[in-house]
Amino acid sequence: MRRAISGLAVAVALAAIPGTVLAQGFQVNEHGTCVMGRAGTGVAAPCDDASTIFYNPAGLAGMQGFTISAGVTAIYAIGNFVDDLNQGEAKLQNGVIPVPHLYAAYGKDKWAAGVGVFVPYGLGTIWPDTFEGRFNGYDNDLRSIYIQPTASYQVLDWLMVGAGLDIVIGSLKLTQRLDLSAQELPLPGLPAGTTVGQLGIPFHTEFAEGLLEGHGAMGIGGNFGVRIKPVESVDIGVRYITRVKLDYDGTATFAQVPSGLILPPNNGIAPALGLDPAQPLPVDSLVAGLGLFADGATLSDQTVTTSITMPDQFSVGVAIQAFDDLKVLGEWQWVHWSLFETLEADFQYAPNLTLHENYRNTNGFRFGLEWATTENVDLRGGYLYHEAAAPDQTVTPLLPEGARNEFTLGGGFRMGSRFAFDVAYQFIRQDKRRGRVRDAEPGQTPTADLNSGVYTFNAHLFAATFVVHF
Question: What is the pTM of this model?
Answer without folding.
Answer: 0.87
